[in-house]
Write the structure tokens for this entry.
Amino acid sequence: MLPDLLAYGVRILPGLLLIGACFALARAEQNPLLRILTLILGSVLIRDAMTPLGLWRLGAAGGVPWLRFTDQAGILLLFALGTVALTAAVLKLDSGLRSLVRWARFTPVTLTLGIGGGMPAAAPVLLLFSLAREYLMAAKVIRPGVLILAKMVGAARKAASDLTSQLVGHLLTEKVTLLIQGGAGSSSGVTHRPVL
């Protein structure tokens, strides 16, 4: 883990220094757009430098491309903490960007606004994930989960019940229905005995 992180740090350090210098020069501007663009380019640098070091793995299964992040918990934790620290540092050092962030108390309204703001970013990813999962299940690359199996069994049971009703529904006269339900009694001349 440590050699991977050191190699990653050495690889991104020159780019981060350049991004930091550009950010410092852009702070003189009143318009925060150049600083925001600099931060976006910095995040692209940080992300793209992970691929040659094997932190991202690219591949294809059945003609469908996939992208996986590292499964090392220590690296994931350090990246998460680093992201929070870097975001806090930028907001602390740049009051112009900090003024663009709207903080509020945790209420149903702010929760709704937060989810509403996150949906345009999350919806395409969730849609693509859902489509990829369906494709991989149809291609028998992955097995369905328990909930999907339960839905499939429920749908199959309903389809079987509907088909049975369609095929034998005309045979179920009132008398036969009473016999099946055990309500005919002695009026039909049939006596019911316990099985045991």
